[in-house]
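So, who can interpret the following?
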Amino acid sequence: MGNFRQSPWWFSALNKSWSGTYFMGTEIRLEKNDLIRRARKITGLQDLGRDFDDGPLERLLRAANEEARLHPIGRFITRERFVSLLSIRLRAEYYFKKYPHILEQELYPAWIIVGLQRTGTTKLQRLLAEDPDHRVIPSWEVINPVPINLNLYDLTRVHQVTRSPGCPTYPHPNDKRIAIANTSVKALKFMSPGFFAVHPIDAMAPEEDILMLDVSFMSTTPEAMMHVPSYAEWLEKTDQSQAYAYSVKLLKFMQWIKPAKRWVLKTPHHLEFPDLIEKHFGEVHFLWPHRNVNESVPSFISMVVYNRMIFSNHVDEREVASHWVKKVGYMLSKALEYRNKNENDAKFTDINYKRFITDSAGELANIYKQNGGLTSELLELFKQHETRHPHQKHGVHEYSLADFGLTETDIALQTTAYLKFFTELYGSNQAKKIQ
């Protein structure tokens, strides 16, 4: 696993010295009322909205406190992140009250990238972001989808049919969010040298919209960061409509402040909930990249192991593998169940991972059949992007099934339906080439 399993010496030393002072009362509190109080103090706002449900937050906190075995830095990061999510909600409600017309608009049509982790979804979204008709959420904006400076933007302006820019300059030069995101990227590089070979992070590049669901404390993000099995089990059995409904409200805010013609969103989380996507988002088309699960699954598990090390000294690779192999199988089965209903298959475009990585033009042309075809101008923009961002720009991500005590049989047992679909989609000979 190379250096992805390593922590800098200072990181371990700080955790050890900090935990040694717990008897002095230095342990970070993770308690609902304290987090809400902090968020209200930071923002100067009180209203979390009539649709705020603190139940998911309470369940997540219980699991974090009782199961995750967070080290001091992990507790600190978790507290700051949860306070930030609550602060986003407070600021959003401020804007929704001041500019109620924002929520009256229809959400743009959307292309939703729903491939499993490590199947080229990041590359695909970042390429599609080059299309000037597309609205994506850059990392700096997904971390803080609502401006921190409450009066920085005047959103009274009514958009024309042409969807001219809602704000003449966006982001505003005094918008604090980009600086915050750049600091976060630097901190990650400092805490974990080498991680960018696993997942390249750029404050200005598109990122997963799963963070819109995090604002309701209902997403798979926590189980990718921490050992929270009780929360994960509860989440899988719980209707997540409220989280999707609120994410739409945030997307409406973002498209108002910066208009476009189509959303391009992505997160593997959506594989589990295409029915909720269709219900709450309206006009959608799903883009599903496919890669050999014996490559994508261990690649993602290695990233989860790294993520969890940022929060805890007690990371069991085999437990992570067991949890996520089952989770991946469940997500795939839910997506296929939806796809096989009625005429839903027509709502999907499939992308061959190997072809996409080696020669993206053909796969992009297939996608743009949904939009009148791929123009030469767009193709040139895509080529320029790939020249600036070559594959494995940040290094090679090394991993293997054996790192996690896994075999191909273990994965096959959990992904039987998908493997059958995969072979039927490409044919046995084509499937072997992809593998």
